[in-house]
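Researcher: I'd like a structural prediction for the single chain below. Treat it as a standalone chain; there are no partners to consider.
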Amino acid sequence: MKKNIGIVGAGICGLSSALALSKHDNSITIYERDSAPPAGSPDEAFFDWSRRGAAQFRHPHAFLGVMCNLLQENYPELVQKLWEAGARKISFEEMVPDELKKAYVPQPDDKQMWLLMCRRATMESVLRKYVEEIPSITILSKHEVVAPEFELRDSIISLQGLQVRENRGPISSVSHDLIVDASGRNSKFPKWLGDLGATISEEREDAEIVYYTKHYQLKNGQNEPDRTGKNRGAGDLGYIKYGVFPGDNGHFAIILCLPNHETELRNAVKEPALFDKICEAIPGLEPWVKPGKSKATTNSFGFGKINAVWRNFVKNDRPAALNYFAVGDAAVRTNPLYGRGCSTGIVHAHLLAKAVAENNSPIERALIFEQLTEKELRPIYQASLQEDRLGKKRAKASLEGAKLESSKGLKQWLRASVGDAIASSSRENIDVFRGVMKSFNLLEKPGDFLKDGKIRRIILRYMLRGRKQNSLARYQRGPSRLEMIELVRRKDAA
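Model: Treating it as a single chain, here is the predicted structure.
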């Protein structure tokens, strides 16, 4: 049965929701508070497009295998347009570390493990133009949703439409059969529905980090440095995490991630020159920013208040509101440092389309969608929480000068021992590396590769080596915390 659907937000998740729902003969209107993207090049989209509603718009993104395969299978023309815009493909073979290349023998599943690399502005502008060409979808820019239209009957909230204001003008009411909330981490719907009496429970945990981004472009004639050699383009020095994100058309971004308590270093990375000096001091980053290699295209800028959030919209088999569905960050949010947000958002959008297409009852649709969300996204959410907690522990150990291999309690010690053994063995064994990359690309639930008996035996052997040796595998070469602070102070004084 054809439905008239309103989607709030024209970001990647909102556009993906429209794509997925349009396959089932629905009429869709997307309401976006910000302006439409410029008509020109990817660089124009990156530098000139104002996206107040997308806080991470100019921070780097990773588009993982689960997302890439979904797009390739369902929207091959879209993927082709991304290639034409300068997006790049990184295959599994290109991800294999140098020390494992001799042992690498291609396997059929390897083709599923690939990354699509480009700036978010490139991805979003190409995706939006693609969606705009679908006759059943209308995108209204500069249209702000200010409240839901609803009906309250027998204490059950049922959304009937939206109150919308165009370009700060008068408010008008529009009717919709379904409302999809793709308005992101700052969604107002939980408060609106809560004020109406809806019960929406929330799990929230602070990652206690801030990360800073700076964009660069390779100079003419320069090629990208190796990212899989001894000095990798991503790593953890305990007190700071770092990563290089290749983009489109010669652009790349570097992020430096710091715990909240590293006040001095956080102040330093806000300064463009000191950001570069810190990068030059880290062996994995130095080849990217050394003189003559690249030029900065932005200053450094930060992203904080990073929380993992899980919202439950069903309690005791009762939906918080009928005809309302939250997707992506409006429902489930993980630390963006792991690069899972866009991929899980697109998966979530297609789970919604499945629930809507297969169930005509408003209550059944809500229950099925909640069940699908729990089944597919909960393992990813929990894995992210565990990574956050381990990161906080290691940052504290670095601050206090504690031994990295120390852990309180048998359970914590065992979890940390397994984690260190996986990190170490994945750099020395191709089977473990392949399993880790399947989890990274969300092609299976996190940790599922450990069900393989062969891999478990390998992990056990590494555990028997001891945590002291294995824990070093999590860390890359670079200055100690005190050495980095002294470097910053010298440069600051100069």
